[in-house]
């Protein structure tokens, strides 16, 4: 491995095509405003470095980034790259991760609208994120101890697991398929509409009109807080441990709840004996 240390780069494609390279304590910034510093690279490590220019890591293989910062001007930082590890790093540019595969993030701070689109096989541990349309159309996600705030997250994702997470996000998990969420808090409006084969286990669900138009939806030992008009036109098996404001027109399955303010059945398809109220 060759090492470059304590240098500043601002030219176009500064380290294009590099292989077996360690970059330490370097800055990618300056008046030349050059793009694509590490394009088409392989086996590169960036350690304690600063990125203030566009598109630094495109078409890279075997990439490690640690203890670094990507500013809001470092837009579209990682695209079309694979076997990537990012630790203890700030990713603050828009569209920071796209069309990548086999990615691991740990201890990162993400502030990036439209982060993580069309990514395959990503693991995220102990990270925080602020984003819109977070992780859209991605698959095989495994998140642990992730705190996320934003809008429209996890739309069209597939085959993913989330554990011990906290999501404050509107319209999460729309059209999601084959998802498990465990021991987590999910807060926001209109949760998981049109999803299929989604399970929430030991979760706290907060917000209006959740879980509508779902197929093969399961809730296992879940709390539902400030939830009204839940389960509209859904196929659902649910064990709920807290009172629900209202349940509207579930189509099939079984819902057990300690109490419910109102059960609405105003379409012919609504099942008659789906909801079991334990106080009755």
Key attributes of the depicted protein:
280 residues, DUF3737, Pectin_lyase_fold/virulence, DUF3737 family protein, Pectin_lyas_fold, 49% strand, 3-stranded parallel β-sheet, 31 strands
Could you describe the 3D structure shown?
With 280 residues, the chain is mainly beta. Helices cover 0% and strands 49% of the residues. It is built from no helices and 31 strands. The strands form three sheets. The protein has a 26-stranded parallel beta sheet that branches. It is elongated. The N and C termini lie far apart (71 Å). 41% of the residues are buried. The model has no long low-confidence stretch (mean pLDDT 97). It comes from Candidatus Fusicatenibacter merdavium. Pfam families: DUF3737.
